[in-house]
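Suppose a colleague, Dr. K., hands you the sequence of a protein chain of 129 amino acids and asks what its three-dimensional shape might be. Before reaching for any lab equipment, you can write down a predicted structure in token form. Begin with the sequence itself:
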Amino acid sequence: MAEATVFDLMDAVGERQPERALRLLQVVLAAEAPVKILFMLGDQIRMLLRTKALWERHPSGRRLPRMRSGMGSGTKAFLFDRYRAQVAAFGRIDVARLLGLLAETDTEIKTGSKPPRLALETLIVGLCV
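The predicted structure, expressed as tokens, is then:
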């Protein structure tokens, strides 16, 4: 696992694979700032929540092209199917809990109350369970 990107990390989190996500985190931390990783994970969670909301409104999938366009611009709309698979992996998403974990981690990193690596590891475990 010589090379890994924050996108690989986000995929592991979205697929709820904590062991893989924690391994990827170590690699990504060597190349990216903890705050950037936190931002990217937050973006991932927001996209999963948006995907879940769109899918719940149109569970038959008959309006899939419209749903994809409802995701936002370009790349994210293209990734709709990947996000939908990750929503399925998450099962019932507790929005308040996920957003709370993100906010708590943000505070821990920015105030220094927890080392950034530990804060991100704790977040990843919390997101994957």
